[in-house]
Fold this sequence. Notes:
It is a single chain. This protein is mainly alpha-helical. 75% of the residues lie in helices and 0% in strands. It is flat, with a radius of gyration of 22 Å. It starts with a helix and ends with a helix. Residues 214-219 have low confidence and may be disordered.
Amino acid sequence: MALERDKVVAASLILLDEVGLDGLTMRALAKRLAVQAPTLYWHFPSKQALLDQMADAIIAPVPAAIPPGEPPDTVLRSLADAMRRALLSRRDGARVYAGTYVMGENVLAVADIALGALMRKGLDERGAADEMFNIVYYILGHAIEEQGFQERWVSADDGTVAGMRRLLAEPASRRFPSLSRCIDTILASDFDARFRRGVDSWLHGLERKEAAPRVRSARRASVKS
């Protein structure tokens, strides 16, 4: 039976969950599919081409999770939440997505939704494009750190968390007093709350940017009058 691209992508995502991005090789994937490695290159000319399609598949649930007809801020919050969930649904999902520039259907749909919401908020094309990338960069960075924390600090069996607390005990607490005060909060890491706070801060920043030209216009009108 001929090997299909969709089956290769599906198998690669399962393998990703098992071995992580560093363990995902074309040779290992070919073994999983019971084919010779050159067979995969009929469908994907390089590993990067495969990663591009994997990235598009990872965020496939995102467009459907965005409520239609909602205010721009609701759309943008929903998009951010849905994209984060999608990236976290796969081991190293954020690392797979980072650095890919695939023009897949799902990537294009997410970009279109974000740009539409931002332009409805009053941003021009340049501003909307810049802010779309800003929120995507934030989502990616947050997800990469979150997955890294779970694997390195929570799943690790080497006493890393206890070691960090010992490191910041006296006398180090006198050298880093602010960090020592916050260490329990940092290690507890409520990533959900932290993520929402970051999105809120980004949206509030947009509001201030939008308000600034109106304030300047009002001041000029007041001076003229």
